Amino acid sequence: MNENIKRDKNEITKKVKIMFGQCGYNGRIHLEQVMQYCADLVTDLYTQNGQSRAFLNSHGYIQMVSRTSIHINRLPCENEEIIITVREEKPEGFQMMRYYNFSNVNNETLIEGKSLWVIVKPVSREIVSPDKFEFCIKSDYQTPFERKPGKIRFSSDLLQYLGEQKILLSHLDSNGHLTNSRYINFALDFLPENYQEKNITDFKLNFCKEIKKGETMYIYAIFDDNSKKILVAGKHQNDVKSESSFECELIYK
């Protein structure tokens, strides 16, 4: 076994070095890369239990993230070694719960979070409850975390139009839709520059409806300077009342 990876049935821990290509202009890891690590290690955990993505797909299952909440104490920087832990937790209703911890070599938590995932049928996208998912990794862990993933609430009447993004080939994952880690880029890239430079301490993402190659996402936002909060919505149509592809809450200091 690779000495930088430790696994048991419920948990995987991996030591990694943050590379230049994973960082932004400030030398800190992109939030997209944080999301990608979370998704990849969940996949690796199941793979090491004999249930790779190909295996699950052949048995009629796909895992898809539905809601994520991340708290940031500090973003790791280029060349820094960190330890990432992903743990399967007790399901909540029809959704699987996962816990994430990014720490430095001194065991100080840099990033912490949780996400809810659904098991769906590949074609119909019908949701399968965890108790009906025969490959579910059973777990009773319930790690305390103040900002659990949940519904993001806002008034669509307050949304301001920021721009639009056509979904391109490079945006897709092998499920054929916009990969989940890309959504945080859309939430940040369309902000006015003075907001892009804010120090993000927390963010939540709700994945509402798949969007695919050739479709266009219309980005809207609400800026609450008193609460130091930004709400971003990616819409399927250029209409504040239309269905969202994603919704995001950003908190800064």
Write the layout of secondary structure elements.
Blueprint: E1 5-7, E2 11-17, H1 31-48, H2 53-58, E3 62-72, E4 81-92, E5 95-104, E6 109-120, E7 127-128, E8 160-166, H3 183-189, H4 193-196, E9 200-207, E10 216-224, E11 229-235, E12 244-252
Antiparallel strand pairs: 1-2, 2-4, 3-6, 3-9, 4-5, 5-6, 6-7, 8-10, 9-12, 10-11, 11-12
Protein architecture, described:
By secondary structure, this protein is mainly β. 14% of the residues lie in helices and 38% in strands. The chain contains four helices and twelve strands, in the order ββααββββββααββββ. Strands 1, 2, 3, 4, 5, 6, 7, 8, 9, 10, 11 and 12 form a twelve-stranded antiparallel sheet that branches. It is globular and about 45 Å long. The model has no long low-confidence stretch (mean pLDDT 95).
Average predicted confidence as pLDDT: 95
The fraction of residues assigned to DSSP E strands is 35-45%
The structural class is mainly beta
Largest sheet entry:
12 strands, antiparallel
Q: Globular, elongated, flat, extended or rod-shaped: what is the shape?
A: globular
Total beta strand runs: 12
Count of helix runs: 4
Low-confidence region ranges: none
Task: Round the Cα radius of gyration to an integer and report it.
Answer: 18 Å
H/E topology pattern:
EEHHEEEEEEHHEEEE
Distance between the termini: 41 Å
Q: Percentage of helical residues?
A: 10-25%
